[in-house]
Amino acid sequence: MRTSFEWAQNYLEKGFVNLSKKDNHIRPLKKGKGIAQIMSYEEGTELELPMYKSEIKAGFPSPASDYIESTLDLNKFLIKHPAATFFVRVEGDSMIDAGIHSGDILIVDRALQAEKQKIVIAAVNGELTVKRIWYDGDKLFLQPGNIHFTPIEITAEMDFHIWGVVTYVIHKPI
């Protein structure tokens, strides 16, 4: 059984709460305008599905093959660092030009380095958002993927943390 201190320490390490610089209290992070739901990854579930050998053409149709080459476990395929992976559900349309739509689920890896042009989940002044990392000279920006939104310049006065790098988008076709 974990103590409340151990629970709080675990939440701080995973980034689900923030230690306020102002009064040294633990505060929950707000989901922000672009994040609707945060979900953790639960290890141990395996589901191997058939993986067909033939590729699917997006252009002119061709005869299908019934030959199964192997099986595919989506957990093994999509999750490279299970202990550092979590999921978020997107809310809003600030990243639609990057192929991220409201209702999509993002797979986020905290073990990866946030580099220029990577899409990240970031906490800005206690609110979570999904944006692309961008540098202009020595200035850091969070760039939206929609021309109707303005970039967020990250300044020294802001409480800014990168939660992780988006590795995959789970998107339901219209």
Description:
The structure is a single chain. The protein is mainly beta and about 170 residues long. The protein has a domain of about 110 residues: Umud Fragment, subunit A (Ribbon). It has two helices and twelve strands. The strands form three sheets. An eight-stranded antiparallel sheet has the order 3-6-7-12-8-9-10-11, with no helix packed on it. The longest helix has 11 residues. The protein is globular and about 55 Å long. The N and C termini lie far apart (about 45 Å).
What is shown here, in short?
The chain is mostly beta strands and 174 residues long.
Q: Give, in order, the helices and strands.
A: HEEEEEHEEEEEEE
Q: Ranges with pLDDT <50 over ≥5 residues?
A: 1-5, 23-28
Could you give me the name of the CATH homologous superfamily of the domain at 29-41 and 77-174? Umud Fragment, subunit A
Structural class: mainly beta
Which CATH first-tier class of the domain at 29-41 and 77-174 would you pick? Mainly Beta
**Largest sheet properties:** 8 strands, antiparallel
Number of E-state strands: 12
Radius of gyration: 19 Å
Q: Treating each run of at least 4 consecutive H or I residues as one helix, how many helices?
A: 2
CATH structural architecture of the domain at 29-41 and 77-174: Ribbon
What is the beta-strand fraction? 35-45%
- Stated plainly, the CATH topology of the domain at 29-41 and 77-174 is called Umud Fragment, subunit A
Main sheet: strand order? 3-6-7-12-8-9-10-11
Helix content: under 10%
Coarse shape: globular
N-to-C span: 45 Å
